[in-house]
Amino acid sequence: MCTENGEIIWGIIEKTVGASQGGLVRVIFREKGPEGACALFSGLQKVVNYWLFPNGFSSGIGDTIGDAKTMAFITQTIASHKAEVAAIRERATIDEHKAAPGMTIRESFESQVERQLNLAHDTS
């Protein structure tokens, strides 16, 4: 993208516009200061609003509910990780749980349980 005196000469503003060191937002802030960056965001918001007006969409609670296949996958994933947590707890109860290097048995137990819960969250 090429701009000159605040006007886009050629190019397209895309999602990486502010994600890099030489991104548009940083360049404008450096060259035009906070007022210039504020004007950029105001202008971009107007463009987005004008686009959303005729092309808008809505989402309701029904859009957030998964279909039967998705719900079955989530339920199965959570159940398998709960079973793994139960197995970890059982090993700790009968003193078969081993401490991980650099951790106490309690820290190791908590780490393994937390890992399973995070995996359940991330994969479901």
Give the SSE map.
Elements (H helix, E strand, L loop, with lengths): L1 E3 L2 E4 L13 H32 L12 H26 L11 H19 L1
Antiparallel strand pairs: 1-2
Count of separate structural domains:
2
Round the mean pLDDT to the nearest integer and report it: 87
- Name the quaternary structure: single chain
State the major sheet: 2 strands, antiparallel
User: Which CATH first-tier class of the largest domain would you pick?
Assistant: Mainly Alpha
What's the Cα radius of gyration?
26 Å
- Order of strands across the biggest sheet? 1-2
Derived structural class:
mainly alpha
Unreliable stretches, pLDDT < 50, 5 or more residues?
none
- Relevant CATH superfamily of the largest domain: RNA polymerase Rpb1 funnel domain
**Separate helix tally:** 3
> What helical percentage do the residues reach?
55-70%
Number of strands: 2
Tell me the span between the first and last alpha carbons. Answer: 39 Å
Order of helices and strands: EEHHH
CATH topology of the largest domain: Topoisomerase I, Chain A, domain 4
Protein name: DNA-directed RNA polymerase
Enzyme class: transferase
Pfam families: RNA_pol_Rpb1_3
GO molecular function: DNA binding; DNA-directed RNA polymerase activity
